[in-house]
Amino acid sequence: MIALLAAFALLQQVGDPPAALTVREGDKVGSIPVVVTRLGAMVRAQDLLAPLGAVLLRDAPERFRLVIGGTEMELATGMAFAKVRGATEPLTAAPTLLNGALYLPLSFLTDLLPRVGTGFLYDARLSELRRFATVTATRRPDPDSDRAPPPAPRDKPRSAAPPSASPRTPRRDRTPVVVVDAGHGGRDRGMHGPIGGGPRVYEADITLAVAKRLRDELTRRGVQVVMTRSSDTLIALSDRGRIANRAQGDLFVSVHVNAANPRWKNPGGARGFETYFLSEAKTDDERRVAELENEAVKYEVEEGAAGGDPLSFILNDMKQNEYLRESSAFASTVQQSLRSVHPGTDRGVKQAGFVVLVGAFMPSVLVEIGFGTNAREAAYLSGDAGQQSLARAISDATLAYLQRYVGRRSNAGGQ
Predict the structure, then answer these.
(1) What's the CATH code, domain 158-411?
(2) Domain 2-131 maps to which CATH number in 2.60.40.1120, 1.10.540.10, 3.30.457.10, 1.10.555.10?
(3) Which of 240, 276, 312, 373 sits a CA distance of 20 to 30 A from 344?
């Protein structure tokens, strides 16, 4: 059946392709230019970002990910297929790089997206891709629709919304969306340990392994998960929040590994787990951990970055914002759940100015799952059993928090 659909899409492109594809969402109308290449009609991936609210990530020189409405699609140049939720979906032509830009076959929009995404319909007669904000009750609930309040306009980033806006409330009648962020990656290896010898561990590897297990646990229990990275690649700290906003996530969980301060009396002996939410650090140790994780910005090259201090701006406004209270409650739930499985010390719920949490406009936490500088804890964090127990505990906390959050908001009259 899939092969027949792909063949039909190919036949559609045999005739003269449209000069542009219209994108319609309610009263909002956008346009995506179509270009004719030796491979057929194609669209530039960058042109999908504004009309569709998409996020384009480059995991490697020839590997890309497109996140559209919470649906993540993996692409590779020269390969005429896309991977969606672990399944291989055919394309009529392979994605290709032209003048350094990624181009996709027109069928990506006319065939693949309406099949694997929810709320999309392509009208070949009008060369129009339509996106619907709601779905009928007989269809599977759309994680990116049937929300209240309605999503922000797709032609400007979700992060442009004022920080004082009320947080999204997960609805009882649709699938919640949780964004899982594996800290560091690519050139940024994060911390390394342990102190005093033993098998070398790197934070970027451990966080990705635990994040994938957390994704699997949540997915198995009916939660839709969007990963900020699913391979060993560098994602800018500021982009991680944007991914979460574009996916219209209900919760944001960032996974990290702690490292001891070398000036401590016995740094190799430091152990334990702690969960952070975004606020001003109160102690030197909270500031130390934030500086440790925020060092990733040195690996990023941001063009056209806005001036000013966005962290201070967000922190000042979030003091009166329900995101702060909900993030604190979520952090407490995670910490309590980890306490039942973690062999290390319960270091408590803490707060600090993590850049990765700044741009995510939803209840958000950063979990330091243990000290990679401690030999015993490094072995626990890098072992299958330890990673699985941590992922299951964080998954338990996430589901428990979502249930309470929906109940609180519903009792208060929230939608």
Answers:
(1) 3.40.630.40
(2) 3.30.457.10
(3) 240
DSSP 51-103: HHT-EEEEEETTEEEEEETTEEEEEETT-SEEEETTEEEE-SS--EEETTEEE
Query: 139-153 pLDDT, tens per residue?
Result: 333 333 333 333 333
Report pLDDT digits (tens) over 252-289: 999 999 999 888 999 999 999 999 987 665 677 766 76
DSSP state of 31: E
Check: CB of residue 292 under 8 Å from CB of residue 232: no
> pLDDT tens, 359-410?
788 889 999 999 999 999 999 999 999 999 999 999 999 999 998 876 665 5
Identify the residue whose tokens are 């330091």. Answer: 368
CB 42 within 8 A of CB 109: no
Using an 8 Å Cβ cutoff, are 100 and 84 in contact? no
Smallest CA-to-CA distance from 150 within 175, 130, 168 is with: 168
Give the bridge partners for 68, in sequence order: 71
Structure tokens given for 34: 């179509």
The strand pair at 346-352 and 273-278 is best described as: parallel
